[in-house]
Protein: Carboxypeptidase family protein
Amino acid sequence: MPMKRTRLSLRSLTGRMTLATCLAASCCLVLPQISVAQNRGPVQRTIDGKVVDKSDAPLKGAVVYLKDDHTLSVMSKITGADGTYRFGQLSQNTDYELWAESNGKKSKTKNISSFESRNAFHFNLKVD
Structure:
């Protein structure tokens, strides 16, 4: 059985090469942008600060509460000897309420809005 030969015209070959070149170029332009966006991930918020008494001395063992206003769940942290606390990996799309309690006394409540553009918050909470 004789082998069938196919003749490609120069125009047909040029068209195929142009299409292949365009596809290769578009992949090179699109793929790096996708991978960069995937590596970044969502930006997370943090809240930290110090709990102090009425004379501004750090309060060891104070409980700091963070309430998610969407789910109504509450997280808590206990301050160390220096009175500091930290909440991390918080959603940007949620409103929060923050307050501290120690020995039956409570600080004023601080509010963090989802409309706030910052991602890091620092609050010193005074328990009177």
